Amino acid sequence: MLNDKLKLWATEWECNKDYKQDALPEVYTYYKQYIETGKFPYLNSVVDFIANTEPVNNLEALKTQVYLCSSQFKQEQDNAHKVKMLADGWLELNHEVAVKLNHKKMQISADGQGAISSFKLSDIFKVFVNDKGYTYLMKPRATRKGYLISNLKNVFYKLA
């Protein structure tokens, strides 16, 4: 049955190649089952898990589906985190809000990605908008070296 759905999906995929769509529900169910095993969901590991559970002829379509699953799962996690943060009294911080709060101190919770590692910001920062319109989070007494807000994810704040 999954084979038929993958075949139909693959013909549509050749026309549009839209990576922002959700995966097939059957594949996503297998993806979540794999995650429940506690193992990291490497693409080939999940594909092997599905292929061992149900026979699949088109492995390339299945690989693309698993890739879509990873994006979908991450989006669901981000949405759940956002709901939790908003329920806890945090507000979302984006460029438009930051411009209005220029030079104000606030408690920040954000995720960042560096060249070789990821990091979490959880401290008091001030917003700084430079003359080119870029918005930064900086330590309260800093005059340079901040975090560009557009490079951060899941940015929430509470005024200090």
Features of the shown structure:
elongated; 46% helix; six-stranded antiparallel β-sheet; 160 residues; 6 strands; alpha+beta
* CA(first)-CA(last) distance: 56 Å
Which structural class do you get from the secondary structure elements?
A: alpha+beta
Number of domains: 2
**Rg of Cα set:** 21 Å
Shape descriptor:
elongated
| Beta fraction | 15-25%
Total strand count, please? 6
Write the H/E string, N to C: HHHHEHEEEEE
Percent range of helical residues:
40-55%
Low-confidence stretches: none
Please give the count of helices.
5
Side by side, the strands of the main sheet go: 1-6-2-3-4-5
Subunit arrangement of the protein:
single chain
Summarize the structure.
The chain is an alpha+beta fold and 160 residues long.
Layout of secondary structure:
Blueprint: H1 2-16, H2 25-36, H3 43-53, H4 59-87, E1 91-92, H5 95-100, E2 105-113, E3 118-129, E4 135-138, E5 147-148, E6 152-159
Antiparallel strand pairs: 1-6, 2-3, 2-6, 3-4, 4-5
Please, could you describe this protein's structure?
The protein is elongated. The chain has a 6-stranded antiparallel sheet with strand order 1-6-2-3-4-5. By secondary structure, it is an alpha+beta fold. 46% of the residues lie in helices and 23% in strands. The mean pLDDT is 91.
